[in-house]
Amino acid sequence: MATSSITKNFVISGQKQVEKFADAIEASANDRTPRVPINMTYLQGTDEIIKFMEKRLLHIL
């Protein structure tokens, strides 16, 4: 997730710092959350939204 800290300047100096920085970037690229397929239905119009909400309310009560 991007934050404002990305816009700050920083200095990397020395071989060890460069390697640590490169390792951190590589680790973050490899640590991605896998996509999970989901089922969804697009609601179009007020009638479909009302029917959907009525079903949800019946499950809550």
Number of strands: 0
State the low-pLDDT regions, or none: none
Count of discrete alpha- or pi-helical segments spanning 4 or more residues: 2
Alpha-beta content class: mainly alpha
Helix content: 40-55%
The average pLDDT value, as a whole number, equals 83
* Beta-strand content bin: under 5%
The oligomeric state is single chain
List the helices and strands and how they pair.
Layout: H1 15-30, H2 45-60
What is the structure about, briefly put?
The chain has 61 residues and is mostly helical.
Task: Name the features.
52% helix; 2 helices; 61 residues; mainly alpha
Description:
- It contains two helices and no strands.
- The two termini are 37 Å apart.
- It is rod-shaped.
- Helix content is 52%, strand content 0%.
- With 61 residues, it is an all-alpha fold.
